[in-house]
Amino acid sequence: MSSENILIEKLKHTLRDYPDFPKKGILFKDVLTILKNPELFSELIKEISNYEIVRNSEAIVAIDARGFIFGSALSLFLKKPLILARKPGKLPGELISNTYDLEYGSNTLCLQKDSLEGFNKFCIIDDLLATGGTAAAVEDLILNQSKTVTGLVVVVELQDLEGRRKFKSPVNSVIKF
Amino acid sequence: MSSENILIEKLKHTLRDYPDFPKKGILFKDVLTILKNPELFSELIKEISNYEIVRNSEAIVAIDARGFIFGSALSLFLKKPLILARKPGKLPGELISNTYDLEYGSNTLCLQKDSLEGFNKFCIIDDLLATGGTAAAVEDLILNQSKTVTGLVVVVELQDLEGRRKFKSPVNSVIKF
Q1: Residues of chain A with C-beta less than 8 angstroms from the C-beta of B83
Q2: Which residues from B are below 8 Å from A83, CB to CB?
Q3: Chain centre distance of CA A24
Q4: Neighbouring-strand partners of residue A61
Q5: Torsion (CA) A90, A91, A92, A94 in degrees, nearest 10
Q6: What's the burial of A44, exposed, middle or buried (CB within 10 Å: 0-12/13-18/19+)?
């Protein structure tokens, strides 16, 4: 097995499944167990840092809130600037925002208007890609500012939900289910 | 000036003030500007990693959600396990939780019940110490499990609000206002 495949197997064994969370019928993949194993967390960040999507970016946009964990570690590791995409009411100053539909209701994500200034190419990072609405909303926010998105990186992709089809730029996931 | 003082001055100049956020009468200190300067972010994480509170801990407990940024980077830097204290509805599995009073209403923070297993000494990290209710609630959660809290580390402390008086263990803040 390649070192990449060994890492993926280790990660798969470390993730924990929670049936019916956050609601009935959904099998939740908990990535927090990775964080309790610092060596594995470090290997994961190193692996992600080699992705072209990340290497080609000038800054990292991390999605509220588990995306912050992987985005921040990657930012420190690569010395690339980190920008946060947050839910309403969390960011001060002038904001740009995008509202997207969910199965029930809708969600909104915001960026500080001047947070993209000084950079042109952004990678987006989150823990999990499910239906893809959140990541696609952040991608649109960046594209609407006439900036480039090098792609989306997630730790876990739930392939059945076809979230990557909502995303215009390339998608790279470490673990696929 | 010592290198520590030079860092503090640089950080103070980088923080941005937002009057009346999140509500009228509050001067919000935005730490996100630090993240756009990777060298400064890296220096900050190195500085925090030298604190006795951090060195004496076996694991880091980061508070939802800006605490995740500094906790995650510190976890990667020091190869110490990271545990998240989150708002209700965000963590799967069996939880322990603590509800505390705010000026208006109340807040609850949760830990996964088995997240503290295997470690005895925890440092708590957050971006900002204001009235201190959140950090004190997390401290109590840990102490109630018969575990030790080495202390609380924050990037910014608003000294007028005397938040550190609510905390039983030592507190170390990088920037004091």
Answers
A1: 32, 35-36
A2: 32, 35-36
A3: 24
A4: A83, A124
A5: -130
A6: buried
Is B66 noted as a catalytic residue in this protein? Answer: yes
Give, for A59, the enclosing helix (H) or strand (E).
strand A59-63
Sequence ranges of the domains in chain B: 3-176
* Radius of gyration, CA atoms only, chain A: 16
Catalytic residue among B16, B66, B86, B164: B66
User: Six-digit token pair at A131?
Assistant: 């239906």
**Is the omega angle on the peptide bond into residue A19 within 30 degrees of 0, that is, cis?**
no
Answer yes or no: do A38 and B75 touch at CB < 8 A: yes
pLDDT by residue for chain B (177 residues), tens digit each? Answer: 888 999 999 999 999 999 998 888 888 899 999 999 999 999 999 999 999 999 999 999 999 999 999 999 999 999 999 999 999 999 999 999 999 988 778 999 999 999 999 999 999 999 999 999 999 999 999 999 999 999 999 999 999 999 999 999 999 999 999
Summarised one tens digit per residue, pLDDT across range A119-143 is 999 999 999 999 999 999 999 999 9
- From the options 3.40.220.10, 1.10.10.10, 3.10.129.10, 3.40.50.2020, give the CATH code of B3-176: 3.40.50.2020
The ipTM (two decimal places) reads 0.95
